[in-house]
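Cross-check.
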Amino acid sequence: MSTGCGERFPKGVRLLKRTGFLTVQSAGHRVFGRSFMALVMVRQSGPTRLGITTTKKVGNAVRRNRIRRLIREAFRRGRMELPEGIDVVIIAKKTAVHLESAAVFEDLDFLGKKVKKVVEKNL
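Predicted model, tokenized:
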């Protein structure tokens, strides 16, 4: 199965280092959803980048990895709808473990709309 260019998830659109996460945490705006929280920081330019945090409170490794996969998939699908030049860190709440994949996508779509409003307000 081939993926289009818009559906890839290269390293350039990921937050990988702790310093990136800490910068977003200290300078970012918090946006709350039902099962997820997003920290959003507007940068000068560049691609929209995603970081994911799932703690052991969410569940065992299998459950945490499932949530991460679903978050990455939702980001791949909706990345073009988000403005360029922002860093987003998604933090999963305990309730995210019990959601079906469709509910996760719906909740992250709702969170994405709130993120867009925050970014537009801060530009």
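The chain has one domain: 5-122. Residues 101-122 form the longest helix (22 residues). Passed to J.P. for a second look.
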